[in-house]
Design goal:
59-stranded mixed β-sheet, Pectate Lyase C-like, 871 residues, 2 helices, mainly beta, 3% helix, Immunoglobulin-like, 6 domains
Length: 871
């Protein structure tokens, strides 16, 4: 005997607060046993049973700590005291136990700032933040503040009561669900006046006079020359720190573009330490290319710390056009590195540059011109020996005799500007005895993916190209110096025209905990731009940064795989990946901003990111994984252009209730895509052309406005308090669960082809109109489903209706329908299946093997009416 399913009361979000004792309550049959099972996105389950009271109510608690965050599914059914079992009902609930990201921006405590020491940071918007500072000896100091609408907060402390030494600064805040996070950092308090330590050169007033350096924003030529002379003297005399005391130092404008004498030329093994009130100001000039500090390819082991570097953006003369430039004036930099290695830039303020705060790049070192005189027909075998091979040409052996190769930093080979060859190439390296050391296969020309490191014991190399003849072949072999092992941290980089940071030839860059903001004025206007051109751009990490008010927040183009974690991307700009190398981006916050993967960008892992009024676009590409995304008032678009190119799962899109626009998913492309465990709530839907071969598993619509389904196969679809419509194309729904929800087929732009099978339609509140209404369709199949409407008391509309109201005398818009094997139950006597409005020219509709309880049939004489049971 069939019995009703239990009813589950509203489920609150599972948080870190309630996860260990999560209450599920509801009602069922008196004294029945309720079976409850939670399942997480990884299909881990936790189950329990509870006995209903004599009045049918029940309540129990779960420990859900071990289940994965994301959308949880709760399955419930009941057995009465006679052993009868109900159908299963499912409800979804979000589990979010991860607290907000807390970014702290602090500095060391000095005699000058201790009485009004600022602690700045960023959390979620409009949240209370408790900030505590402690020296571990005295009672901690604590203040409570509230973040603004952008999540920023700031408090001031008087630190004079705390001891010198390590000071722990801790911030505690909650997210909108009450999940709490704590972030701590340790700074140093040092208010003592001490003599300069050994190895520190102090640029005191006396020393400034010695070198002709002025700190009053005057005498730019003398000041610039003085810095360079003083740095050379300091390094030759064993100093390892060059301390620039407070003041404004004017750096010369120079007499030409890239004037070597109009910049500070760093020396190796030196820390360039600036006080907080030290400013290096570029003199107003007309040149398209300039820098304040330059690090050339031979420079190693440099730290640049503190102070402010300031350009001439607002006084610059933009009328000049250089002989090798285009008049855009986009190459005025705070710091430029051209092949330096082991560089740290820490706690520096960069502002007002015509180009970038920092440009990190490379330069050429040596090379060989390859042409027909040093090429021969054939390839090389697995041991590097010459073989006859059609379609291949090989170089003669080249000796690594250039003295530049004695420097490990320069031991690399790239191939540029190919002529007369196609595709990729292979490199072979040999020892002095002629034996092969290694082969680098499938190298790309002019690319990060053609940066080959020469083995330590290699003395010769050869290359194999794709060509049928050596005639008219030309390739430039280059060895380059790129910026290696660069760390940019704790900097404030803003108000530059072109970029915050440009990476145009790098290997091993970390950009950590910086504020990068207000970048615009000349294209591209990006906070960080990885765009190396012919040079490599590899082993890059960009994490823990705050991006604000940039034209573009980040561009990853042409470089190798990058890491971008725990960043905050503020309003009105994008994080764009257009590189085949791709990116691993996780735990980032997008606030009124977007992530865009386009132009075939591939190798992307986009996990556990949060979007608020933001978007994420994945436009083609290979090996793209999207998992664990949570969005509010946000949009996601997938365009599948490669078989199995994009995989997406565990995505939740909800509404704030303050945005009336429709958001959600858009599915495009000409190759099938698989989505799994998708949760849509409020003003969120699923759009796009889709494909009949697409697979959507465990998609949930909860309290959504009318939603159209794109073409594809929907397995375990759950719809609660919603209305489902369809785009043109073929849609198959299997084992769906519809709660207080209706289905309509109505599309003037093209007729859908819809099959719904083995699904349930349950109601605990009255629904006006039809439950299933088919206004137009190429085909509609409704197979082996159960409809149980035990609450609606109006018989004004049939439960299932084929054809529009009063359409019987109009041309049919429903080209075929099969309604078979269904069980339909209603509270009052009403029409269960109605085909009388099918219209003129309608085919016979197949109505078979249905069980109608408290229902009737309203069919035409030509319909197939077989084995239907009507009671």
């Amino acid at each position: 005997m069939a019995i009703s399913s239990p009813k589950i009361n509203s489920l609150p979000v599972v948080t870190s607060i309630n996860a260990s004792s999560y209450t599920v309550s509801g009602s069922g049959i008196a004294n029945a046993t309720i079976y409850l099972t939670f399942k997480d996105p990884n299909k881990n389950t936790i189950s329990t049973t509870v006995k209903a009271t004599s009045s049918g109510t029940f309540s129990t608690k779960f420990n859900l700590i071990t289940l994965k965050d994301g959308q949880l599914n709760l399955e419930a059914y009941q057995k009465d005291t006679k052993g009868n079992t109900s159908g299963k009902v499912n409800k979804t609930v979000l589990k979010d136990t991860v607290g907000p990201t807390i970014l702290l921006s602090v500095s060391n405590i000095t005699l000058q700032n201790q009485s009004a020491y600022p602690v700045n940071g960023k959390v979620e918007a409009n949240q209370k933040v408790t900030v505590t500072v402690s020296d571990g000896i005295h009672s901690p100091l604590s203040k409570v503040t509230t973040s603004d609408t952008s999540g920023n907060f700031s408090v001031l402390f008087n630190m004079s009561s705390l001891n010198n030494g390590s000071i722990t600064i801790t911030a505690v805040s909650n997210d909108q669900y009450g999940n709490q996070s704590t972030s701590s950092t340790v700074v140093t308090k040092d208010t003592t006046v001490v003599s300069p330590p050994a190895g520190v050169y102090e640029l005191t007033s006396q020393e400034r006079t010695r070198w002709g350096i002025y700190n009053d924003n005057s005498h730019p030529i003398e000041t610039t020359n003085g810095f360079n002379q003083a740095l050379q003297w300091a390094t030759s005399n064993g100093y390892t720190t060059f301390h620039v005391l407070g003041g404004t130092y004017l750096i010369a404008k120079g007499v030409e573009d890239k004037d070597h004498n109009a910049q500070i030329n760093m020396v190796s093994n030196m820390t360039f330490l600036m006080d907080s009130d030290t400013v290096l100001q570029k003199e107003t000039n007309k040149w398209e290319q300039y820098a304040i500090i330059s690090l050339s390819k031979d420079i190693v082991n440099v730290t640049i710390k503190g102070g402010t570097l300031k350009g001439d953006r607002y006084t610059h003369d933009y009328t000049y056009v250089g002989p090798y430039t285009s008049g855009t004036h986009e190459w005025g930099f705070g710091i430029i590195t051209e092949g330096a290695s082991n560089v740290i830039i820490d706690g520096v303020i960069f502002t007002d540059f015509t180009g970038d705060g920092v440009q990190a790049g490379g330069t050429t070192v040596t090379g060989e011109s390859i042409d027909s005189t040093n090429l021969e027909l054939g390839g090389l075998d697995a041991n590097g020996n010459p073989i006859s091979q059609s379609g291949k040409i090989r170089t003669k052996p080249y000796t690594l005799s250039d003295p530049a190769y004695q420097n490990p930093h320069f031991r690399n080979i790239m191939m540029w500007n190919p002529e007369g060859v196609s595709g990729k190439y292979d490199l072979y390296y040999y020892r002095s005895d002629g034996s092969l050391i290694k082969t680098d296969k499938d190298q790309d020309f002019n690319s990060s993916f053609g940066y080959s490191k020469i083995p330590d014991d290699a003395v010769k190399w050869r290359a194999v190209f794709n060509a049928t003849s050596t005639a008219n072949v030309g390739v430039q072999m280059m060895s380059v110096a790129v910026t290696e092992n660069l760390l940019i941290q704790n900097c404030n980089i803003g108000n530059n025209r072109r970029q915050g940071i440009s990476l145009v030839g790098t290997d091993g860059v970390k950009i950590l905990n910086n504020k990068i903001h207000d970048i615009s004025g000349v294209a591209p206007g990006s906070g960080v731009d990885l765009e190396p051109g012919f040079y490599p751009g590899i082993n890059t990490e960009i994490s823990g940064n705050e991006f604000l008010n940039n034209k573009i927040h980040m561009v990853l183009s042409y470089g190798g795989h990058a890491i971008a974690n725990n960043n905050y991307f503020g309003p009105d700009a994008a994080f764009a990946s257009t590189s085949w190398g791709g990116v691993s981006a996780s735990n980032n916050t997008f606030d009124n901003s977007s992530f865009v993967s386009s132009d075939g960008s591939s190798n992307i892992t986009f996990t556990n990111n949060k979007l608020t009024k933001s978007g994420a676009v994945f436009d083609g590409g290979e090996n793209i994984i999207v998992d664990g995304l949570v969005g509010v008032d946000s949009d996601i678009s997938f365009t599948q252009t490669v078989e199995n190119g994009i995989s997406a799962s565990n995505i939740s899109l909800t509404s704030s209730g303050q945005d009336s626009e429709l958001h959600g998913f858009a599915i495009w492309g000409d190759k099938p895509i698989t989505l799994s465990t998708i949760y849509l709530e409020g003003n969120n839907g699923l759009s796009g052309n889709g494909l009949a071969s697409n697979v959507y598993s465990n998609v949930t619509f909860n309290n959504t406005t009318e939603s159209r389904l794109a073409s594809g196969n929907y397995n375990n679809l759950i719809v609660t308090n919603g209305k489902i419509n369809f785009y043109p194309g073929k849609v198959t729904i299997n084992q769906g669960q519809f709660k207080n929800s209706t289905v309509i087929l109505d599309n003037d732009n093209g007729y859908p082809n819809v099959t719904i099978s083995s699904s349930t339609f349950d109601f605990d509140k009255s629904v006006s109109g039809n439950i299933i209404l088919v206004n137009n369709a190429t085909s509609f199949s409704f197979l082996n489903n159960t409809i149980n409407d035990s609450v609606t008391t109006s018989a004004d509309h049939p439960i299932i209706q084929i054809g529009r109201d009063a359409w019987k005398n109009s041309p049919t818009q429903v080209k075929g329908a099969v309604i078979k094997g269904n069980k339909i139950t209603s509270k009052i006597k009403r029409v269960g299946i109605d085909t009388t409005n099918g219209g003129i020219g309608a085919p016979p509709y197949d109505i078979e093997d249905n069980t109608l309880i408290n229902n009737t049939l309203a069919l035409t004489s030509k319909d197939i009416n077989k084995n239907n049971t009507v009671t």
